[in-house]
């Protein structure tokens, strides 16, 4: 899933790192034709995979191959720690093969739950756009989003937290007034 987008993201990160080297480390890379690698591209190459690791998830908690490999790698690393060693079959008989399969199962389950919860929250935040036709939904979204409004961060004192980011019963007149528009009753 998402292979083309992931490949595109990896190329984009490499291209951006090269651009940053051109802009901020021109004395190292020169005009870019000599094959010299600058500090940004070097730092990107020092990542675990040698580049950014694009993680793509689906609506049903499926993940791309890179995310699956990341989970496996993290489970192996965790299994080697003291905590992981304490979960060996000598202590926990829930899975054969040591701490690694236990960690991998827990990580996959936790990630699946996190993805499902995030998808549900995303859908709940957008429920006020539900309209009988796609055209009406699009028009509602356009009418209620100002391009010039500064949206406060959820971490700012006095503002809604992530679980309060939806507005029940649509936007209503108050939201339209706040966005600088008045369309009468909905």
Textual characterization of the structure:
It is built from eight helices and no strands. The protein has 186 residues and is mostly helical. It folds into three domains: 1-54, no CATH class; 59-125; 134-145 and 154-178, no CATH class. It is flat and about 60 Å long. Residues 135-154 are annotated as: Disordered.
What's the β-strand tally?
0
The biggest sheet, with number of strands, parallel, antiparallel or mixed sense and barrel status, is:
none
Q: For the CA atoms, what is the radius of gyration?
A: 24 Å
What integer is the average pLDDT?
76
Q: Domains counted in the coordinates: how many?
A: 3
Content of β-strand: under 5%
Could you list the spans in which at least 5 consecutive residues all have pLDDT below 50? 158-164, 166-171
Structural class: mainly alpha
Kindly report the oligomeric state of this protein.
Answer: single chain
Percent helix range: 40-55%
Order of helices and strands: HHHHHHHH
Number of helices: 8
- What's the end-to-end separation, in Å? 40 Å
Shape: flat
List keywords for this structure.
186 residues; mainly alpha; single chain; 3 domains
Short précis:
With 186 residues, the protein is an all-alpha fold. The chain has eight helices and no strands.
Q: How do the helices and strands line up, and which of them pair or pack?
A:
Elements: H1 3-24, H2 26-29, H3 39-45, H4 65-79, H5 82-85, H6 99-125, H7 134-143, H8 172-178
Helix pairs in contact: 1-3, 4-6
Region (Disordered): 135-154
